[in-house]
Design a protein that fits this description.
With 276 residues, the protein is mainly alpha-helical. It has 10 helices and 4 strands. The radius of gyration is 24 Å and the shape is globular.
């Protein structure tokens, strides 16, 4: 970069900073229909800010979950009909992205469960994609109207404890299915020994997403640059949590799945060696 370009970039940064400072001074503060305590309480307990869903007052995260699921299914349908049949030996950008995303979870399944990984690869691909897209969903700021007439942004589906519990136990039952497939009824008892796994998965997902939300709320309510800084903080926490939580849950699921289904194959190898 030449000296002239460096000066231009520096001037643009200074001009942007000046606009932010002027905006802080001149723009009126936004009106908030609830205080910081109410916002924090609702983020944890979800006992307020309900939205109407076919006559039922439900949490906004339920609507977000339906939207994310529908979007993922629609994208998968489009890719299967219009993109995958046109794959080439020399991949283009879109094909390379798809193959890299699928290959990451496929390699994770094969590494942690080398004997039984076909169903595992499909599950952790779906779970990881849902966690990543569901977490990134809140960045778009889709609006909904509460039953009290206030406008709110739809949160990430897993920011609700119920959504995190469902994801944690779904992964736990999938791990149990691997234990049953590999060890029969013994696999159930072996999986139940690690019953703390769904609890840890649940609180890890919920706690990570909740911490980002609460940090953004604190910045929004108490920092002077409350109309600019929350954007940076929100994007940073959301992207980091989307990547980390998608990786952590799929990694743990594949690891425990491979562990509970491994004994069966050891017995099979011993039997085959004895018969030989």
């Amino acid at each position: 970069m030449t000296k002239k370009k460096k000066i231009t970039v520096l001037l643009l940064c200074l001009a942007t900073l000046a606009l932010i400072v002027v905006g802080v001074i001149l723009l009126p503060a936004s009106e908030k229909h609830e205080g910081i305590k109410e916002a924090m309480r609702d983020a944890v307990l979800h006992d307020a800010n309900k939205v109407n869903f076919f006559g039922f007052a439900v949490d906004p995260s339920l609507i977000a979950g339906f939207v994310v699921t529908g979007v993922l299914l629609f994208i998968a349908l489009l890719l299967r009909i219009f993109v995958i049949p046109r794959f080439k030996m020399i991949p283009g950008r879109l094909q390379l992205i798809i193959e890299s995303w699928v290959g990451f979870f496929d390699d994770l399944a094969k590494t942690n469960s080398p004997h039984r990984n076909r169903a595992l690869g499909g599950y952790i691909f779906g779970a990881g994609s849902y966690i990543f897209v569901g977490t990134m969903f809140e960045l778009f700021g889709f609006q909904a109207v509460t039953t009290e007439g206030h406008s709110i942004s739809l949160p990430a589906p897993l920011a609700n404890m119920n959504g995190a519990i469902c994801m944690g136990f779904l992964s736990f039952f999938f791990i149990m299915s691997g234990g049953i497939a590999g060890n029969g009824i013994k696999g159930v008892f072996k999986t139940l020994k690690d019953f703390s796994l769904p609890v840890s998965m649940t609180f890890r997902l919920f706690g990570a997403l909740l911490s980002g939300m609460l940090t953004t709320e604190l910045v929004y309510y108490f920092i002077t640059l409350s109309f600019a800084l929350p954007v940076v903080v929100g994007v940073m926490f959301t992207v980091i949590h989307a990547l980390i939580q998608a990786y952590v849950l799929t990694m743990l699921t594949s690891f425990y799945y491979g562990e509970v289904s491994e004994v069966h194959h050891k017995h099979m190898e011993e039997k085959s060696a004895g018969s030989g």
